[in-house]
């Protein structure tokens, strides 16, 4: 039996001469010979595939398979049509799924992975759909939504037709020149009368989630109109996401797909660069500077640049030194006295003494960074100049805000979504904030608001301000339910909320979160000094917002979305919760460490507002920032400034952000315009404005939704992105469907519907349908009633029939339909396999990494090659 021992040469003649060091190594988990034989099999399949390609294929016809064919000048307008008609679909399913292998060796694992991914996408779509965080879920995207004060008239005639709805005769008279007299076109009396009282009721349930009921009877019997997932369900679903995102084979699968996507983009841009440049040169008037850009993540109290703040403080000291600005320690202090108390004169003030810039000394020091909000390091100057609720009722901050608004309006193409704090310390905060905005007339067509809730429960608790966590929830949400039931109970809040897009959760994510290995207590019983973890905060924001949104949609008021800071530092479960229940996130730099979640963010095109300059100062140096990788892979990335006061040097912080990114990452003009387009797509401005900025079809996917005259992104780029995404989704769909046939166990106990994602299945949420039906049919497609993952909803509800066709393709697609020009730039090394049936679907089943993992696990011994049997 000695020939069977691994260290002894076999009985066959030649192997006797082998030196010990050249002998094949074989361990229980590694078998060189088997790996080799597998890679031979791959090579063979690859060859067979090539010999099976019909002669009509582009390769055979001698056309560069990777190059997008340049059409004749006259044909150019039809380019988009061609792509959508069939080029789109052929490109989508070719390359990534080129082969119908005759071996089923790999598919069970691939099936399992795709099934899990599919399950997670369904899970997300359940959460997002339930909380109405969708384009069609928000009444302010309807045609009949009135924006008040009306946005300025488009300067060029062709756009004028899109403005029809928003013309009130009185508002017309008060129209002002953009950049001047901020707020003068706003008149509180024109917002009256407010809508009446609703007969629905709301109640805080035992687990601190506000529930909405149709009447008192439903309330007493406990039948809310919308059933939000319980804390337990939420954590189970979150665990399902985390389980998949840490699963080894799923991780390597995602990593490979992402690398493939990046490579595919690089190949695409190498070959189509000139075409893109030519296409964008053909567009009259439009360039990077005059495409619309939205700053998707910027904190209001740091929205001005430091020079601006300095100038403002100096002018206040010069013009009104005797104004009483502060009440402290039982004394009223004038501005002059305040500056005397800190030993400063106007002359002393400079950028250096102001010391608010954070690019040198705040790396990994979020605590230090927070102190940078204090001018000259003095919290009282912050109190006077940068707070909305102070002795002067936030007048200084309102004045400087108007100056920033005026700059934005003059620049015309830059919009912002300012984040402003509600702390949850007292129930009056909302009314004070709303009064500050309304009384100071802080209204501009370039500005919308997000409300950020700092996670500071531990601070309030330790200062004795509150007993338990439930009080934070009550303070943040009760006024919102009150004003939704009866707007006249908080009239100014009602008006302010019309300009609020959603909620953010902020604080230092890198703070350690102690894990409790028991069930988390409900908020009423959360009375220790420990701060609840990130996921717990986000759950309660989500659950309460879901109830609130449902009621607001029912009343025809605008709804909110969740757009938290997420994945800037800290645990990867922050990103998992971001994926599960948030509309989009800010930062997300830690996605680079979690390929599975990154791939999911890609598949669902979840918005990521990235701020590489801010990260550079705080958590991650610029060169290591994954922004450029994300962008190339096709994630929905936008650039934002975060805190211009602390990070920017110039008067136009957003342009500064783009320009640094362009220089370091070598972004082309088309890349920059694509980033700008993403920012408009992610933002919460009303659909009618987005249509004005991106074109009237901007809610459609792919080329159909692209207007190169507005976005300056060539159709060829859009087609490439769309086709790639559709291809990835088709891949997941195809293999997950196979898996569903084999095993019915779903991810984390969540039962995913087995029928194809694409075949609309009747939805059980009948009450939602009812309310949806009241919406304007022109903005809402009936597909909203179907339960499909949100990406697909996105594709479908964007009215893109081609998305559907191409996703159906794997079943019927034949290799002969490849003759049109698609972005066939993926015939690279990723392919391998063979067809058994000529003309049948060509698709790839060999994913090398997965084969090897399987082999390593030793469960393929039974079908090994001759070498194996010998051992
Ligand atoms: Zn931020």
UniProtKB/TrEMBL annotation:
Q: Which organism is it from?
A: Aspergillus cavernicola
Give one Pfam family: AMP_deaminase
Give the enzyme class.
hydrolase
Q: Indicate what this protein is called per its UniProt record.
A: AMP deaminase
Could you tell me which Gene3D superfamilies the record lists for this protein?
Answer: 4.10.800.20, Metal-dependent hydrolases
Q: Which cofactor does it need?
A: Zn(2+)
- Which keywords belong to this entry? Hydrolase, Metal-binding, Zinc
Its pathway is: Purine metabolism; IMP biosynthesis via salvage pathway; IMP from AMP: step 1/1
């Amino acid at each position: 039996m000695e020939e069977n021992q691994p260290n002894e040469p076999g009985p066959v003649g030649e192997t006797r001469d082998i030196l010990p060091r050249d002998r094949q190594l074989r361990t229980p988990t590694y078998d060189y010979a088997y790996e080799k034989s597998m890679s031979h099999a791959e090579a063979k399949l690859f060859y067979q595939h090539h010999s099976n390609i019909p002669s009509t294929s582009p390769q055979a016809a001698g056309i560069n398979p990777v190059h997008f064919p340049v059409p004749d000048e006259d044909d150019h307008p039809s380019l988009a049509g061609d792509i959508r008609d069939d080029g789109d679909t052929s490109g989508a399913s070719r390359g990534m799924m080129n082969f119908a292998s005759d071996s089923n060796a790999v598919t069970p694992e691939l099936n399992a992975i795709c099934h899990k991914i599919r399950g997670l996408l369904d899970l997300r779509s359940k959460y997002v759909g339930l909380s109405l965080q969708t384009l069609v879920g928000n009444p302010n995207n309807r045609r009949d939504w009135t924006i008040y004060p009306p946005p300025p008239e488009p300067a060029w005639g062709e756009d004028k037709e899109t403005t029809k709805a928003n013309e009130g005769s009185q508002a017309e008279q008060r129209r002002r020149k953009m950049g001047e007299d901020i707020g003068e076109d706003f008149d509180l009396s024109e917002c009256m009368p407010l809508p009446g009282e609703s007969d629905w009721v709301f109640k805080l349930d035992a687990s601190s989630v506000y529930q909405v009921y149709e009447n008192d009877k439903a309330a007493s019997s406990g039948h809310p109109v919308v059933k939000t997932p319980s804390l337990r369900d939420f954590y189970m679903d979150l665990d399902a996401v985390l389980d998949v995102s840490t699963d080894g084979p799923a991780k390597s699968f995602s990593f490979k797909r992402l690398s493939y996507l990046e490579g595919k983009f690089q190949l695409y841009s190498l070959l189509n660069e000139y075409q893109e440049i030519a296409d964008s040169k053909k567009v009259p008037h439009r360039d990077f500077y005059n495409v619309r850009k939205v700053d998707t993540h910027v904190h209001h109290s740091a929205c001005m640049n430091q020079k601006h703040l300095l100038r403002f403080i100096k002018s206040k000291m010069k013009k009104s030194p005797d104004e009483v600005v502060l009440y402290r320690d039982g004394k009223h202090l004038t501005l002059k006295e305040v500056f005397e108390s800190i030993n400063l004169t106007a002359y002393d003030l400079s950028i250096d003494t102001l010391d608010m810039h954070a690019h040198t000394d705040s790396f990994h020091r979020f605590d230090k960074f927070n102190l940078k909000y204090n001018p000259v390091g003095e919290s009282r100057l912050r109190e006077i100049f940068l707070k909305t609720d102070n002795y002067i009722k936030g007048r200084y901050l309102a004045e400087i805000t108007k100056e920033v608004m005026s700059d934005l309006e003059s620049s015309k193409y830059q919009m912002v979504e300012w984040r402003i704090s509600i702390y949850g310390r007292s129930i009056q905060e909302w009314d004070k904030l709303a009064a500050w905005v309304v009384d100071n007339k802080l209204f501009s067509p370039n500005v919308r608001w997000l409300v950020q809730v700092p996670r500071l429960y531990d601070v309030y608790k330790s200062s004795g301000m509150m007993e338990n966590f439930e009080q934070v929830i009550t303070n943040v949400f009760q006024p919102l339910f009150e004003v939704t039931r009866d707007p006249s109970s908080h009239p100014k809040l009602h008006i302010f909320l019309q300009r609020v897009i959603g909620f953010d959760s902020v604080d230092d994510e890198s703070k350690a979160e102690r894990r409790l290995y028991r069930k988390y207590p409900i908020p009423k019983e959360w009375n220790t000094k420990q701060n609840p973890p990130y996921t717990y905060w986000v759950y309660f924001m989500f659950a309460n917002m879901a109830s609130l949104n449902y009621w607001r949609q029912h009343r025809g008021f605008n709804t909110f979305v969740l757009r938290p800071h997420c994945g800037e530092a800290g645990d990867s479960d922050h990103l998992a919760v971001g994926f599960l229940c948030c509309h989009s996130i800010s930062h997300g730099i830690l996605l680079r460490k979690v390929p599975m979640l990154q791939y999911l963010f890609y598949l669902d095109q979840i918005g990521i507002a990235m701020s590489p300059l801010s990260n550079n100062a705080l958590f991650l140096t610029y060169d290591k920032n994954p922004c450029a990788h994300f962008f190339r892979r096709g994630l929905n990335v936008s650039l934002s400034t975060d805190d211009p006061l602390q990070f920017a040097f110039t008067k136009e912080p957003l342009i500064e952000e783009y320009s640094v990114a362009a220089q370091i990452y070598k972004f082309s003009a088309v890349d920059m315009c694509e980033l700008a387009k993403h920012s408009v797509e992610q933002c919460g401005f009303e659909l009618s404005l987005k249509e004005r900025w991106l074109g009237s079809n901007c809610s459609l996917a792919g080329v159909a939704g692209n207007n190169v005259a507005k976005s300056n992104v060539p159709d060829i780029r859009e087609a490439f992105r769309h086709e790639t995404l559709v291809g990835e989704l088709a891949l997941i769909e195809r293999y997950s469907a196979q898996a569903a046939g084999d095993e019915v166990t779903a991810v984390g106990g969540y039962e995913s519907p087995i029928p194809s994602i694409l075949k609309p299945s009747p939805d059980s949420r009948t009450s939602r349908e009812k309310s949806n039906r009241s919406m304007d049919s022109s903005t809402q497609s009936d597909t909203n009633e179907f339960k499909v993952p949100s990406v697909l909803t996105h594709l479908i509800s964007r009215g893109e029939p081609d998305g559907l066709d191409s996703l159906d393709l794997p079943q019927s697609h034949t290799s002969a339909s490849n003759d049109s020009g698609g972005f066939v730039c993926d015939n690279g090394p990723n392919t391998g396999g063979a067809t058994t049936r000529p003309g049948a679907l060509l698709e790839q089943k060999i994913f090398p990494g997965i084969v090897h993992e399987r082999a390593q696990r030793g469960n393929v011994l039974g079908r090994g090659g001759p070498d194996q049997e010998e051992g």
